[in-house]
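FIELD: query
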Amino acid sequence: MICYHEFLVHHREFDPAREHVLHFFRTYKILSASQVSVLEKRSLRADEQEFWPRIQDAMKENRKVLAEFMAELRAMGVEHLDDLAHMDQGYCTKLLHTITHILDGFFGVDSYFFNLIDDSHWICPGLDERIQSAPHEFWLVGAEATYLQESRGFEKAALLDG
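FIELD: result
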């Protein structure tokens, strides 16, 4: 499975920005990719006109994934926080776990945009001002990662069969 991701990093030049993303994939313990390609043509420095619209679109993608997971959780009967205490362990709790990872800043295959400065799926308060005051120091780096198995969200079939 190949997934596209966009990473926000703090570097003046593209080469260190690329290396930051590659280092992240080499050292990240929660998920491993068999191959990573940093896409220079899909990467932007913050002083480029398309930078902020791309950041906004990328964060919308993250919110869309989050909304889809939450809708799936609701379809399984989770409507209120009190419902969490009565969930059976299995796919439903794994889905909740994935939702909390997105909210808490853990990178996963479902992460479209990831802010490596703050380990977040969003632009944290104050970071936008830092970027605007020194746009030549920030990059949005596009990358494609190949993962060994289908695992968007969680592997529903394996969990339901097991």
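FIELD: remark
Residues 2-161 form one domain.
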